[in-house]
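Hi X.,

You mentioned you wanted examples for the new student's onboarding notes, showing what a folding record looks like when two proteins sit in one file. Here is a clean example. The first protein comes first, with its sequence line followed by its structure tokens.
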Amino acid sequence: MVSSECKRYVNRPVLASHCNATSPGPRYKRADVVIHGSSRSIKMSIPVPKPGPNEVLIKNVAVASNPKDWKVPLWMAELPWPMVEGNDVAGTIAAVGEGNGGVTEYKVGDRVASFSRMAIDSKYGAYAEYTVSPANTTFPLLEGSSFEEAATFPLAYMTAVLGLFVALKLPTPLEPATSERWVVINGASSSVGHFAVQLAKLAHLKAIAVAGASKELASQADVTIDYRGKSSKELASAVLAAAPEKINSLFDTISEAGTIRTAVDIVRENGGRITILLPPPEDIEIPSNVTITRTMVGSSFGKGGPFSDYSEGSSGDNSEIAARYYRLLSGWFSEGKVKPNPVKIIAGGLAGVDEGLKLLQANKVSGNKLVYRIAETPDV
């Protein structure tokens, strides 16, 4: 019997010739968005990659953008460009890895979402019909969980998990705080900040959210402070006034030079830990009672590879933590305990990726996550 995927190519001989009549799965995907610097183009009729040990192949239904998707191609020229970018996917299992380390948790047809490996090979890119992803960063979608909403979670959610519970060493939802512990989350209406506030409350932490126009996304916080119209000194004073003598943990999800300096001003009062997502400015003075670490979400895949090296106090391998918290997310998402980012669908499927990344680069996205439906891609 000819596979359903091959039937699509009955009038396209070049593609049909590559379809084996007994093949259990697709041989060719029809569209990838290939990125090189600021150039983005759709490449058609690319062989479908095979998942390796401990990997799955996902037929994407919805994929989402992150700011890193435009930054990395411009900032890291040493990587193997041109390449397919993106790392947030949701869809169904098309194949599972076999052999040593074979995947037994999932079967073909299962509904899942996943955080794919970053900036290594096009087969891991999200802006495609099919994406290979590690099994440990893949999680089941329970009944009622939409693909579009699920695609908003993977990278940002895990960044929030690692920032709060690894870098800042705060109590977790598995071992919640038993006494009053405060954490400041700057950029609380960003994708990472939105999840960080929710996770902090699941861990019974007291959360101070710093946000602007979309501050309603941080409504679960104990205190919300609008940064707009405040100088760095005024913002630091406002945060400290919310919980004097109790603030010693701060998650700066924005991580610009100005926000990092403000973070230091806040934490220096009592001493403590700050975690950031981007490198700090070289001229910043860090007091002896303040520790700054970078949260590197690539450590979700284990040691090695881009964005995985952890700074002070970490082994660089958070693969087990990632596996545990992604599977917890399945239930939390389904039960409404952790809510997705608001979804903004960009029309045109993969053909809309260029528009979406331009909006992110121009800082014109606030309070929502850009999502693309693969089925809307022209000629797919």
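Then the second protein repeats the pattern, sequence line and then tokens:
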Amino acid sequence: MIAVKDLKKVYHQANREIRALDGVTLEVPDDSVHGVIGQSGAGKSTLVRCLALLDRPTSGTVEINGVDLAHVRSSDLRRARRRLGVVFQHANLFDSRTIADNVAYPLELAGVERRERAAKVTELLGLVGLGDAAAAHPAQLSGGQRQRVGIARALATDPDVLLCDEPTSALDPRTTDEILDLIADIKARLGLAVLVITHEMHVVKRICDSVSLLEAGLVVESGPLAGVVGRLGGRLSEMLLQLPPAAPLPATLGATLEVLDTTQPGDTAALTAAERHFDADLPVLAGTVEHLDGTTFSRMRVLVPPSLDPAVVVSHLKGLGAESTISAPSIDEVA
């Protein structure tokens, strides 16, 4: 388990104080994947550096299974880093070394004897699907294969936590999904706590159990995927279940009809039940369905006819397990 509490990193430039991290707190239990998503400048790179002990936090703690790595002595830093495996955006392999030697490098630093290193490398290359590539060099591999080598190397010292820094941003969509599925498989096999830093919501949807939104060095929203999806109006909910553009309403109707946004586990069952209950149509303007953390969620934007009280419809939908909110039609939705 990794537990980050009130992590702060302050840089000083001339007479300016830059708070790159301003009190980040999050937890990742064993056998789970937590995504940290944010745009450029949000503090993701600084967070990676502090978690990987490449940079000392100004304050706060980074605990792995109860041991605070942020405050280990400099002499113990190398040993402390072995508790954390890091997968970089680019594999950062040694071009002059074979694939086997790249994976063995952390074991060499740890003083593991040659025979034990060789056995571990064989095991790890098999785990990532590269058992026949041991004698190859990085230039002979595809981008996805090099990233697999990077993952194998990150696992060499049997870490408790796997930290993945934008692990798929340099890959094509198909290879991206293959690498994400590999990370999820490794998590399941080894029971690791995995923290994924990303700017791509697809990564979160594909493998994460929980997610945090990082902005200006702060976690502004966080929680299990199933929890944040249900927070209508929340940033993460909108990002996870993003509606496609809706068909425009005739301008003559825009002022008389109400629009509801509704989110629910499953498909459209709640909406269908509401239509039967009120004996009225609730036409869908736009909708989307996503499979998140083992559960299917749907979001729809629906019209409420003048014969119905929107508040009553919202209340009834909530009783059916669908969170809903009333929203006026946007300018784009009125022809």
